[in-house]
Design goal:
Radius of gyration: 18 Å
Number of helices: 7
Number of strands: 4
Number of domains: 1
Largest sheet: 2 strands, parallel
CATH topology: Rossmann fold
Order of helices and strands: EHHHHEEHHEH
Strand content: 5-15%
Distance between the termini: 28 Å
Helix content: 40-55%
Structural class: mainly alpha
Shape: globular
CATH superfamily: P-loop containing nucleotide triphosphate hydrolases
């Protein structure tokens, strides 16, 4: 919603990750080497649902998947940051559920982190509404139960248990406040 506004850009780390999975993409061969042909569709593309099922059912597999994909995604994020700087983008929102928990993320690239907080039942409802099957949703929620926002000066928790338009308004207000502080030298 916010990226529809002038001066605000958006990068979705999941979308960047999916690009790396494509046949010939930088993660493709390594994913096949680690997870085997069982993650492939008949056309040779990666079945992301099957890959997610494998990753969320085994902590080591999830760790391996992240070690393969996250560094590649971060390189793409760096390119997007440079591109948006050249365009004069006022704020670039980088969306990624694991930005604060993955050891493969260079957190120094970001001025601030917005942690959207919603109860598990609300997250379940939203994931199911997005078309994910029940078993995948449950595995994903299980894998994320231990994720908590770190106590850091540049981490801001926003209540996301409200309609998306209201969440967007709160995030925009936070961005404006952070920009005012930066201009004021605080």
């Amino acid at each position: 919603m916010l990226a529809r506004r002038p001066g605000i850009g958006h990068v979705d780390c999941d979308e960047l990750a999916h690009v790396t999975y494509r046949p010939g993409g930088p993660a493709y061969a390594r994913l096949l080497g680690r997870f085997g042909d069982e993650i492939l569709e008949p056309d040779g593309s990666v079945n992301r649902r099957q890959l997610a099922e494998l990753a969320f059912s085994d902590p080591k597999a999830k760790e391996d998947l992240e070690a393969i994909v996250h560094p590649l995604v971060m390189e793409k994020v760096k390119r997007e940051i440079r591109r948006h700087q050249a365009l004069g983008t006022r704020w670039l929102l980088v969306e990624g559920a694991l930005l604060l928990s993955s050891p493969h993320v260079d957190t120094s690239l970001f001025d601030a982190f917005v942690w959207l907080s919603a109860p598990e039942e609300e997250r379940r409802k939203r994931l199911l509404a997005a078309g994910l099957p029940w078993d995948i949703v449950e595995k994903r929620l299980q894998a994320q139960r231990e994720l908590l926002p770190p106590k850091a000066e540049n981490v801001y928790v926003v209540d996301a248990n409200i309609p998306p338009a209201d969440v967007a308004a709160r995030v925009l207000e936070l961005l404006q406040t952070l920009e005012e502080r930066r201009k004021g030298g605080r």
